Structures are given as C-alpha cells and as structure tokens.
C-alpha cells in the first residue's frame, strides 16, 4: 500500500491543539512529511473556524489479528482469574470459528482500518515480529515494528520473542519500548509478575506494561520510580475480570499511563469508544471526573513517550512528523470536544503529512485530484476518501463468512446500495 508522500500544504482557520499545554494557533503547515511553518503558494484548506486540529491518536495495545465481533467473555455472572481460561473460551467460540474463515492478511487489514477510522495513526500489535512483520508495512497506518516483546512473566507465558531478558536488552540497546502483559489476573503468579521482572533486572523506563490489574500499591510505587509506562485497557479488563487497574493511584503516583483497546474480542470497538468508556468507568469507580485533558494526554504525548517516539510524534510541533487528526468542532473546550468524539466527527487524518482519510474537500491538499490507491466511501452521510479499499475488504469478509456481517469499527456500508 502506498505510504506517505512529499506533500506541502496548510490547514488554516481552525483551532490547533499542539499539545495538552498549548492551544489557540489557527494554522498548521506540512512540508516533506513534517510539521512546518506555513508556506505561501501551497495548497490550502480553510477550516472556517469550525474544526479542531489535534495530533493523531496512539493506541498502545491492540491485537491486530484478533479484531472481530462479537466479543467473547465469561458466562453471565462469572469472571476470569487469569487470561488463560478466556483463551480457551475464545478458541471454542463461534466468533473464532467464523473469524478463522479469514486469512491473517485480511484480519490485519481490518485492524488497520479499525485504527484509521478512529483517528489512530500509530499502534502496537502485541504479537511477535515473526508473526506480524509481513503484514504491518501494508497497513494504512503506522504499526510499530521496533519493540522488545514478551507475552508475560509467568509459567503460562506464550514464549513470544527471544525471551524476557534478551528482548529487554535489545530494547535498551536500541532505545525501544519493552512491552509485556503484566499482572493480568489474580492468581499467585500474576500477582508476582513485577517481582519476577525485578529479579531479572527488567524494570526501567523502557518498560510498557499492559493491563496491570493485579498491581499492589507497592507495585505502583516501584513502577513510578522506574519511570515505566502502563497501558490501561479498561473495557477489556471489566469484561474479563470485572475490575481494572488502580488508575487513580497510578495517576497520583506519576505513572505514565496510556490507553489501549485490546482486541474487539474483549475490548471497545475502537479507541474513541475506549476513551468514553474509560472516563465513565472512572467516574463510577471514584465519584469524580477524569479530565478530558488527561485522557487526551494518554493517547498522544504519554503514548509517544511509552513508545520512545516522543521526539517524532505525539504533539504538533514543527519538525515532528505530520500526524494530524481534524475533528468537527462541536464544543468550545477542545479537550471536551476530543473526549466526546465519535467516528462520524473525523474530518481528516494524515500520516506523515499524507492524508489517509478525509472529507472530499481535503482532496485539494493533493493538488485537486485524488491519487491512485484511494477509494471513496460514505460515512455519516458524507462522501469520504480513504487510502486503500476497505469496502472491498468488507465485501470479502461477507463473502467468506456467508452473510451480511456487521463490524461496528467500520463506519460505512460496503456497497452503494446501503445493504
């Protein structure tokens, strides 16, 4: 799939949210894949004071070969002790049987569009490179390949990668994140996961820990001191375990908290739903609000830091890559506008300056005509262009499963008849 080109353009007369601490500019420029000072005599789109411009979103935990519906969870009134019985339920489910009719490339492509249609341009697929290396470069968004990986620190670890210590050393050497599930459950091994890593010398600012629902207060303090990061997957945690991480204590301790969706087999349909779910859950758990600014930081600057990419992405600063999300402005507060957004509010998404999805008015950024490699769909009554052909992919899914499958993370019908 054709990836970002060398476009030059400006977006003007919008509210630009450069970072959680900087808003108010009205123009952003792109030159040679990067954010740059606006230039004269280049293509331009006037946002007419009706749009808000953000850095595009970063999802720190997804299973890109596992995004399919409906979800799979425990029997009503029951919950899991660890992830392992869920895995057995998944493989015995009708969802898995149906999903297995698609090949791995098709599943990865679906996940790429799940990200794109929710404003995500950077994601980590929590599978080893031996599985995903073939598929990630073909996605319409950026799925990072530079990470150290382990499944988890327990006897039922799936033995991904080259082992905990080797993978961590590689991450440190290359200035990558080291990513692993941790404390995903409440058996003795899960509860001692952080201690196991500490004994191996694996607890530092390279670590990005997923879930962490079994963390004690002492664990949270140690993670904060080490400057490690946590990926909070609230919806998935609640479906599987009826509990999530001690997120308020993590925030108060200064832990670098990010947000992940997990797969749609257990988690939210996409990151925009996850943001809304996480906020509501926090309010229910603690009787207080989780500020929209905090949520925004979790999926931009915090996530870029966790991936060791904060010099390249996560804020709209000159010299960084041109990863931009433009949302319809429906609220005066740009952060509340972000926190309430749905797929239908997206007006434009760019990756390294290249529009990968947007309303047809943004075709002007290409010089007035849509390049090859794009297709058109209808989303929320609007004609939109998109990199690749997700409608063909959707039709292929329906053909292979044998009925008109609905996938809620795809915000369109797969053909013009609206079936």
Structure report:
- This protein is α/β, with parallel strands linked by helices.
- The protein has two domains: 8-55 and 317-388, Urease, subunit C, domain 1 (Roll), CATH 2.30.40; 58-306, Metal-dependent hydrolases (TIM Barrel).
- Helix content is 30%, strand content 23%.
- It has helices spanning 84-91, 94-99, 104-116, 129-132, 164-174, 188-191, 193-199, 217-226, 234-241, 247-253, 271-286, 292-298, 301-306, 334-339, 390-401, and strands at residues 8-19, 22-31, 34-36, 44-46, 51-55, 57-62, 120-125, 142-143, 148-149, 178-182, 207-211, 229-232, 256-259, 324-328, 346-351, 354-359, 374-379, 382-387.
- Strands 1, 2, 3, 4, 5, 14, 15, 16, 17 and 18 form a ten-stranded mixed beta sheet that branches. A five-stranded parallel beta sheet has the order 9-10-11-12-13. Strands 6-7-8 form a three-stranded parallel beta sheet.
- Helix 3 crosses helix 15 (390-401).
- The radius of gyration is 21 Å and the shape is globular.
- It starts with 7 loop residues before the first strand and ends in an 18-residue tail after the last helix.
Write the layout of secondary structure elements.
Blueprint: E1 8-19, E2 22-31, E3 34-36, E4 44-46, E5 51-55, E6 57-62, H1 84-91, H2 94-99, H3 104-116, E7 120-125, H4 129-132, E8 142-143, E9 148-149, H5 164-174, E10 178-182, H6 188-191, H7 193-199, E11 207-211, H8 217-226, E12 229-232, H9 234-241, H10 247-253, E13 256-259, H11 271-286, H12 292-298, H13 301-306, E14 324-328, H14 334-339, E15 346-351, E16 354-359, E17 374-379, E18 382-387, H15 390-401
Parallel strand pairs: 1-4, 1-5, 6-7, 7-8, 9-10, 10-11, 11-12, 12-13
Antiparallel strand pairs: 1-2, 2-3, 5-14, 14-15, 15-16, 16-18, 17-18
